[in-house]
Design goal:
By secondary structure, this protein is of the alpha/beta class. It has a seven-stranded mixed β-sheet with strand order 3-2-1-4-5-7-6. The chain is built from six helices and seven strands.
Length: about 200
């Protein structure tokens, strides 16, 4: 799996584009000013760079070194600074009271890992901090415009809401929207969206 992502991100193009995810862009105002932000499964860095541009202190993490290299290049082009950690989410310590925001944009993980991440949010996020997530829902299998092909890697809203405890849902929706993010996310997509505050 790691080889697939390293190969994908080693291309010259930014396969998911250089611009931030639109849902994140629309909801970034929920993040406390100059907050400490963690972007998981951040890939080529478009969202981390956007948030750094808003004045946040951003740590990105992903398992693909080629993603880190492109993210740091993009940050340099945009004249912002991010920290990028290469590692596996299975072993990642989210800490206690560490983050003003945790961002998960198309961070598709197996069910067991997803539950572990969601279960750690109420401990990891500071008071008034937020969790912002957009992922493909199971309905995405009908659209074939990006995302995993396995049902186990797609997030149903009811499952996500059950797994996240100790946060207030400001927005929780399963919907279909037009997604244009590089060459690999193009067209109508079925998504699950969350904004939740501690």
């Amino acid at each position: 799996m790691l080889d697939i992502w390293n190969e994908r991100y080693s291309r010259d193009e930014f396969v998911y584009g250089r611009e931030p995810n639109q849902f994140l862009k629309d909801n970034a105002h929920h993040i406390p000013i100059k907050g400490s932000v963690l972007c998981i499964a951040e890939g080529e860095g478009r969202n981390a760079v956007f948030l750094a541009g808003l004045g946040h202190e951003v740590i990105a993490m992903d398992m693909a070194k080629s993603g880190r290299d492109k993210a740091l290049r993009l940050a340099k082009e945009q004249n912002v600074s991010i920290e990028y950690r290469v590692g596996n989410l299975n072993n990642f310590d989210f800490g206690t009271g560490e983050w003003d925001a945790v961002i998960a944009i198309f961070a598709h993980t197996p069910i067991e890992l997803r539950q572990k991440i969601h279960g750690s949010l109420s401990t990891a996020i500071k008071p008034n901090g937020v969790f912002i997530m957009e992922v493909y829902s199971p309905d995405q299998l009908n659209y074939k415009t990006g995302g995993p092909k396995s049902l186990d890697l797609l997030f149903a809203l009811e499952d996500v809401k059950r797994e996240i405890e100790g946060l207030e849902f400001l927005h929780a929706q399963q919907t279909v929207r037009d997604i244009t993010e590089g060459s690999l996310h193009t067209g109508l997509g079925a998504v699950t969206q969350i904004v939740a505050r501690k």
